[in-house]
Every structure is written in structure tokens, then in C-alpha cells.
Specification:
Elements lengths: L11 E2 L4 E2 L10 H4 L8 H8 L1 H4 L9 H18 L9 H14 L6 H29 L2
Antiparallel strand pairs: 1-2
Length: 141
């Protein structure tokens, strides 16, 4: 229900005066949130999870609750994709893989691209998660 000509998204493209990026606080790419041509995306899944909250309203990547429920679903999907017989077995590697998929796109499964992002962005996220876990463990004593 938003006007695409006036709704700001990330990644302004100054050369042509338009925008070409992610939407809302969780930074969903438009086709990840809802692929109109194929009729699927996180919008539909968020609606299913939040049916008791939405009261007939359509989920929006610009609404905090909707956006972060969508993020939870997205990261859960990525976590599952990073496991399994051909996946990663250590928590650190699964966290790196999940973060890399978040950064580069959940369906971006080429080993070269995924490996690059796992060594960079993914590894830094997994290291931060380890530090957070140490703090949590201290609180649990």
C-alpha cells in the first residue's frame, strides 16, 4: 500500500535519482519480501506467524514486528541450509554460513561466493556471537 515513488529504501542511486535496495529496518530486498510474479516470499510466512496480531492487515517490511519476524524466519532458513549432511557441523561454521547467507542472499550457494563471505562478514559475526555467549555463560553461573 506504499507509493514506490516516494517510499525510501536503502542504496540510493544518485546517477539516476532512484533507489534500488532493501526496505525497512530489517533491510529486506523487495523480491525476498514478496515475489509478485511467483507469489511467494517472507510476507506470506510472516502473515501466517502473526495471524493473531495482524487482524486483516498485510505484513510490511516497514513495520518493526513484521520485519523482525521475517528476519527470524530468514535466519532460521539459512541456519537449516547451513547444516545437514553436506553442511557445517560446528556452531561457529554454521553461524558463519548463516551470516554469509544473510549478507549475500539466502539462495546464493556457490561455494566461491559463500566461502568469501564466510571468511569475511560471516566469520566476524560468528566471533561476535562467541563473545556474547561467553557473557551469557557468566550470567548463567
Amino acid at each position: 500500500g506504499r507509493n514506490p515513488a516516494t517510499t525510501p529504501v536503502s542504496c540510493p542511486i544518485p546517477s539516476d535519482g532512484s533507489y534500488g535496495g532493501a526496505m525497512g529496518p530489517a533491510q529486506f530486498m523487495p523480491r525476498t519480501w514478496w515475489d509478485i510474479e511467483n507469489g511467494y516470499g517472507y510476507k506470506k510466512r510472516v502473515a501466517k506467524v502473526l495471524k493473531y496480531v495482524l487482524n486483516g492487515r498485510s505484513p510490511s517490511p516497514f513495520v518493526n514486528l513484521d520485519a523482525f519476524v521475517g528476519t527470524m524466519l530468514y535466519l532460521s532458513d539459512a541456519w537449516d541450509m547451513c547444516a545437514g549432511p553436506k553442511g557445517f557441523s560446528t556452531t561457529f561454521d554454521r553461524r558463519s554460513c548463516t551470516a554469509a547467507k544473510y549478507y549475500s542472499g539466502i539462495s546464493n550457494t556457490t561455494k566461491k561466493t559463500l566461502g568469501k563471505h564466510m571468511r569475511g562478514y560471516g566469520s566476524s559475526v560468528a566471533k561476535m556471537a562467541q563473545r556474547f555467549q561467553k557473557d551469557i555463560d557468566i550470567l548463567d553461573l
